[in-house]
Amino acid sequence: MSVESNGGMVRVFSARACAAPLEEAAKLFESETGVHVEISVCNRHCASPVAEEAAENGAHHADFLVEIAEDAIHDLAIAGAEYLLDDGEVRGIVVRKARRTIACRESALIVPAGNPGRVAALEDLAKPGIRVAISVIDCLKGLWEDVSGRAGLIETIRPNISFKANGCVAIVEAVAQGKVEAAFGWSSFAHLAPDRIEVVKLPAAYCLRRGTCIGLLKFSRNPAAATRFMDFLTASKARQCYRKYGWIV
């Protein structure tokens, strides 16, 4: 059965750190339906890892929704946090009431392999000499405040924030390269650089979850097949792909 005879192709725009389980789930979908899933990952707005450098280049207002809207070729978008698709609905990029939550990720601290800063708890981020990284865009935006606020540590951790990153991959690279002793991230980041970073889990009282969600785009050329793929991603078989990479389903 050809792809063309069974519903055509679905184009999906994905946040970079969400791509691995999506790729596995897409293969399952293709084998069951014959519909090809073409996946693109964001790359323009987070091309400058350091947020201050991006601002100097005039990119500080960009986000992955801008890239999606400018390309206008995708059927679906996957974000690492629900608020991003909320923004997409408000801006007329994501179709209202046409989205699904696939799975969730839990907040965690990310440290270099070997944990040279000996960061074992959230409170350690307030110690002298500990350099901390945060992301100012996308799924990690504001996470440090939400986690630190639960522990009453906003004022004590803030002075140690030395690296403001543009997105998930930039955070992981900053940690892996030893630019910081710790970063606020997701427990699922372990698969992004398994030999170069480690995950320090947070106690339940400080742990937050954000949803990895998928939404139909207003310029979709194949909304029927796109909706079918959205439904597939919330089914048990597809969600196992996300569990494999550390998502909570």
What's the rounded overall pLDDT mean?
90
The largest β sheet comes out as: 9 strands, mixed
Q: Name the CATH superfamily assignment of the largest domain.
A: Periplasmic binding protein-like II
CATH topology of the largest domain: D-Maltodextrin-Binding Protein, domain 2
User: How many distinct domains?
Assistant: 2
DSSP, total strands:
9
Shape: elongated
Which strand-content bin applies to the residues? 25-35%
Characterize the structure shown:
By secondary structure, the protein is α/β, with parallel strands linked by helices. It folds into 2 domains: 137 residues, Periplasmic binding protein-like II (D-Maltodextrin-Binding Protein, domain 2), CATH 3.40.190; 100 residues, Periplasmic binding protein-like II (D-Maltodextrin-Binding Protein, domain 2). Helices cover 32% and strands 25% of the residues. It is built from 9 helices and 9 strands. Strands 1, 2, 3, 4, 5, 6, 7, 8 and 9 form a 9-stranded mixed β-sheet that branches. Helix 1 links the parallel strand 1 and strand 2. Helix 1 runs antiparallel to helix 9. It is elongated, with a radius of gyration of 19 Å. It starts with 8 loop residues before the first strand and ends in a 5-residue tail after the last helix. The N terminus is likely disordered.
